[in-house]
Amino acid sequence: MSGGVSIRSIAPETPLVDVMGGAARREVKVHEHGFLALVDVMPRLVPQGQTADSAIVQAARVSYGAGTKQVNEDRGLIRYLLRHRHTTPFEMVELKFHVAMPIFVARQWIRHRTANVNEYSARYSILPDRFYVPSLDAVRKQSGSNRQGGEELFKTDDAQEAKTAQQFLDYLKAVEEFYPRYLGLTEQGVSRELARIALPVNMYTEWYWKCDLHNTLRFLGLRIDSHAQAEIRDYATAMLALLREIVPITVEAWQDYELDSVRLSRLEVQALKDAISGQGTRLGTDNKREQAEWAEKARFLGLP
Ligand SMILES: Cc1cc2nc3c(=O)[nH]c(=O)nc-3n(C[C@H](O)[C@H](O)[C@H](O)COP(=O)(O)OP(=O)(O)OC[C@H]3O[C@@H](n4cnc5c(N)ncnc54)[C@H](O)[C@@H]3O)c2cc1C
User: Fold this and answer.
1) pLDDT in tens, 179-233
2) Are 294 and 266 in contact (CB under 8 A)?
3) Do the domain assignments include residue 147?
4) Ligand 1 center–CA 63 separation, angstroms
5) Which residue among 220, 222, 225, 232 has the greatest number of ligand 1 atoms within 8 angstroms of its CB, and so is best to mutate?
6) Is 147 in the pocket of ligand 1 (CB under 6 A)?
7) Does 79 qualify as catalytic in the annotation?
8) Do 108 and 213 share a structural domain?
9) How far is the CA of 222 from the centre of ligand 1 (A)?
10) Assigned domain for 79 exists
11) Rounded to the nearest 10 degrees, what angle do helices 266-276 and 288-300 cross at?
12) How many structural domains comprise the chain?
C-alpha cells in the first residue's frame, strides 16, 4: 500500500531485454572533435526478440483495438502507419542523445523546436579549446545556383585554388589564436559570460537532446537532405546509423516512404504523364527554380 493506493507489479509475459544491449552509450565520432552518442531510449526494455519498434505497434493497437486483426503483422502495421502519416504512435519512442558539435551546427539544430535540450553553459564554465577546421581538400566553394550552399571543392592540385583554400584555413587559425586571450582575461577576473562573446562559432558546444521518434525522423528528413549544410548532415547520418539499431523496422519504412521517395507537384505529375506518353518532360511553368527542381527529380526518375 502506498498512501492508501494499492499498487500491483505485473511481471512481463516474455522476458525483457535492453534495446541498447546493456551499453551506457552508443557513440559515433563526428569530425575531429565531435560526437553523437545515444544515451537512453524509451522503451529501454522490450520483450525478448523485439526492438523499440514494439512501442509503436503497442500504441497503434490501442487506437485500432480489435480492428488491427487485418493489419496486425508488426512490420506491415508500422509501414502502413508511416505511409499514411499516422504519426502519433511514433511519438511513443523517445531518444536521448549527448552531442558535441560546432556552435554553427548547434544554431541550425536548435531550430527543431520539439526536442528538449540542455546545453553546456559558457557563463558557468570555460569553453575547451576545440575548433572545427575542415581539411584543405574539403574546403567548399560558394555554389553558383544555390545562394545557401557550397558544393564544389577547391582543387588542391590547382595552385591558385589551393592557395585560396589555404588562406581560408589560415583565417580560421588566426581566429583560434584569440583563445589564449579569452583564457587570460577570465583569469584576470573578466566574467566568463562576457569573455566568451568574441569566440568564433566553429568552437564546440555540447548538449543533451531528447526527442520523440516522429520529430527525430522529421529532423533527419530535413538535415540529411542534400540541401542541408554538409557538417550537420554528418551528424544526421550518424544519427540514422544509431537509430537503425534501435528501430530497424521504422527506419526501413521511413527510407522507403520518405527518404528515398519523391514528392511531385501537380505540374510535375502532368510532366511525368507527358513523358510517359512520349511528349517530352517540359514543366508547365516559366519559374526557373521549379524547372531546376523538376530537372533534378526527372534525373532521379531516369527520365530522358
Ligand atoms: C536546408 C535548410 C535551410 C534553412 N534555412 C533557414 C534560413 O535561412 N533561415 C531560418 O530562419 N531558418 C532556416 N531553416 C530552418 C527552418 O526554417 C526550420 O525552422 C527548421 O528546419 C525546423 O523545421 P520545423 O519547424 O519543421 O521543425 P520543428 O521546430 O521540429 O517543428 C516540427 C513541427 O511542429 C510545429 N511546431 C513546432 N513548434 C511550433 C510552434 N511554436 N508553433 C506552431 N507550430 C510549431 C511546426 O509547424 C512543424 O511542423 C532552414 C532549414 C533547412 C533544413
Assistant:
1) 999 999 999 999 999 999 999 999 999 999 999 999 999 999 999 999 999 999 9
2) no
3) yes
4) 29
5) 222
6) no
7) no
8) yes
9) 9
10) yes
11) 50
12) 3
223, 262 Cβ separation under 8 angstroms: no
Distance CA 64, CA 59 (A): 9
Among 198, 216, 245, the domain-final residue is 198
Bridge partners of 208, per DSSP, are 98, 118
Q: At what angle do helices 74-83 and 53-64 cross, to 10 degrees?
A: 80
pTM for the model: 0.93
Residue whose cell numbers read 557513440: 27
pLDDT in tens, 135-193: 999 999 998 776 666 679 999 999 999 999 999 999 999 999 999 999 999 999 999 99
Nearest CA to 290 out of 260, 258, 267 is that of 267
Q: Residue 141 sits in which domain range? A: 136-198
Q: Does ligand 1 have an atom closer than 6 angstroms to the CB of 181?
A: no
What is the C-alpha to C-alpha distance for residues 89 and 61, in angstroms, rounded to an integer?
9
